[in-house]
Fold this protein.
Amino acid sequence: MMSTLITDHKLLRQHARKHVEAGAVTQGYQAGRSDVVRMLNAALASELICVLRYRSHYFIAKGIHACTVAAEFLEHSNEELQHVDWLAERIVQLGGEPDFSPQGVIERGQSVFGIAVNLYEMIKENLVEERVAIDHYKELLLFIGDDDPTSSALIQNILQTEEQHANELASLLWGLPEQHN
Ligand SMILES: [Fe+2]
Ligand SMILES: [Fe+2]
């Protein structure tokens, strides 16, 4: 027999009518809201850095006629931007403010914006950053636990893409000629 109690509908409605201005944040929201918003903003900052790094590498790779790799960088950049949007939407739902201010992006985020010298270095740098993001999102999932299923689902969704990105970059790296290694 299940031990979880299901709250009576009338009581749920009573709770729902209180603080309607809080929108999606109901009485049943169990996570520490300001902590979650802060962490989602940190993730947003990391994603912004990834958008820029991939974008910059796209133009450099295109310039050296590495079309396949350039196309991959552009696709990843666009997907990181999608992550930015999803995180910002969730932050707003939680009553927070998505922090897009360029000042402090590096401090808030986990990712770095390095200067790569060749194609091999560019791919490797992005791969390292994807691996940092993967571990960071896994830690976020552990922190949130069962307290905010919507944020968890969002992070899992993003995590899945970051793992795909890492996998694709690793394949590109193996495909490069020896002299780049
Ligand atoms: Fe991302
Ligand atoms: Fe990624």
Summary: Residues 120 and 178 are 10 Å apart (CA to CA).
